Amino acid sequence: MLELSNIDTFYGESHILHQVSLAVHDKQRVAVLGRNGAGKSTLLKSIMNAGTTVKGSVKWRGRDVSKLKAYQRARDGIALVPEDRRIYNHMTVQENVAIARQGVSRSVAMTEARAILGSIEMLSTLGERMGGALSGGQQQMLAVARGLAAKPELILLDEPTEGLAPVIVENMAADIISRCDANQIALLLCEQNIWFARKCTSHVYVIDSGRIVFDGSWEQFAEKPEIAERYLAV
Amino acid sequence: MADRSVYFWPAAGVIALIATALAPLFANDSVTFILGLAMIEAVFALSWNLLFNYTGIASFGHAAFFTLGAYFVACAQRYGWDVTFPLQLLVAFALGGGAAFAIGAVALKRASGIHLAILTLAIAEVVRMVIGYIDYVGRDDGLGGIPRPVVNLGLATLDLRSSSAYYWCILVVCVALALGLWWLVRSRYGRALRSIAEDAERATFVGMDIYKLRLFSFTISGAVAAICGGLSAPWVQIVTPDLSHWLHSAQPMLNTLLGGSAMFWGPAVGAFAYSLINYSTRTLDGVSEIVVGGILLTIILIAPTGITGALESLRRKIFQKWRAASPWAQVRVKGEQI
């Protein structure tokens, strides 16, 4: 479904990602683990073509999408939920979700937004509340809900658990898994929280200093404790 | 109990509209003239705020589009072109929109922020200087003696030559344009524009083509500004290159600051307030500019969110106190205690 082959990513002159290869298959849930500054966010921005210069091959559903702009990739079925949530404070929760639904009337977008919110426990009663009046966990789930509203085939989540209380992280994991399963959406999750990543995904990559240093299942990851020790310990 | 405070702004709007419509019946000619100009400047400022508040683009040269519309209608009326007045306004709309589209198609791709603002300022200055070289439009002297139109509607003739008749024509067109812009900012395009203004990258991630949306907003804004210019030419009965001067481009910004950019009608309120201040101080020979500047500075310092922002917070305070003191609130509190 998504295939990155030997990509190198640059911010201006700075070389951030080095020969990164990664694949996400249909309906698969994949995690990318790494410390701060390892290149996780840059990886997701490279997939979206958002502000980075990328060399190498980015294939989406077997097609080279290197020349597509970020909004075209979003319309093509890839949704990025960025790290900083970026909620529209002046809009209600429902409107925040509806705005991601392009090409349909407002009433259809709002109906779909209500349905999405109704299926997410953390937001089901907050549709009329203003985006700026939500807690951190609620805002994060709203950002995920907005990603889902575009009916993507792949959702990219950038550190959704950052700064959230453990109990909220647990609820969020349940919500994310159920939404991905119900809508048959593939997931690429960039995280530092190993528990959360393991709960949500079946395959894991570890990234360090812009290079993929591990690629395997969670069982294989568990068999190599030195990977976590070396690349993920704070 | 229903929240009656939501009727405050619609009620204020209706009262203001009725008062403005009746002005020619009780006000003298100079007040009517100022009000006519204020209506045009109000819509001009609304069109600028479509860019500024709703799209996140600052244009320092918006008067260029106003000037295009004004000169087209001025020439059509002055030289008796065989184009009816409604069609003149439509052509002005298309001219302004076309020019904005052409400029925006290049400028919005290449520039943003202060660079875009300066670029638009430069374009307006170029328009002003080019007009100054064209004999047909009176070079630097401008084009005077512009007659007001008589519109042949087939079955009837609409004679707009009198001040009051043309005033009501301005009112109808301005209300229609303002309502059109109001509808636009509430449509899904308007919501998309606001999301771009707030965070363009985020808008991209939900699939919005920010370049096209910005270009759309720039085009509509330029087209509306041009109609405003078209309306003003027969009202003032003279057009000069100074219509494209940067001072005229600054006028919608000032009106927006004065009225408040956050509420849709803020720039319109600002335009009327500015006209009122200007009119009230016109007899202060030699110091009127200083007094006007001082008043504007004071208002902006006291109410940084503009007149509408200040009125809105006042409305909230008053209605909160009123609700707390109402017998219904007392009953509710007692009920909760029981």
Automatic annotation (TrEMBL), chain A:
GO terms for molecular function: ATP binding; ATP hydrolysis activity; branched-chain amino acid transmembrane transporter activity. GO terms for biological process: L-amino acid transport. SUPFAM superfamilies: P-loop containing nucleoside triphosphate hydrolases. InterPro entries: AAA+_ATPase, ABC_transporter-like_ATP-bd, ABC_transporter-like_CS, BCAA_Transport_ATP-bd_LivF, P-loop_NTPase. Pfam families: ABC_tran. Belongs to the ABC transporter superfamily. This is Branched-chain amino acid ABC transporter ATP-binding protein. It comes from Nitratireductor aestuarii.
TrEMBL record, chain B:
The keyword Translocase does not apply. GO terms for molecular function: branched-chain amino acid transmembrane transporter activity. It is found in: Cell membrane. The keyword Transmembrane applies. The chain crosses the membrane at residues 7-27, 33-51, 63-81, 87-107, 114-134, 165-185, 215-236, 256-277, 289-311. Coiled coil: none annotated. Signal peptide: none annotated. It is a multi-pass membrane protein. Keywords: Cell membrane, Membrane, Transmembrane, Transmembrane helix. GO terms for cellular component: plasma membrane. PANTHER family: ABC TRANSPORTER ATP-BINDING PROTEIN (PTHR30482:SF17), HIGH-AFFINITY BRANCHED-CHAIN AMINO ACID TRANSPORT SYSTEM PERMEASE (PTHR30482). This is Branched-chain amino acid ABC transporter permease. It comes from Nitratireductor aestuarii.
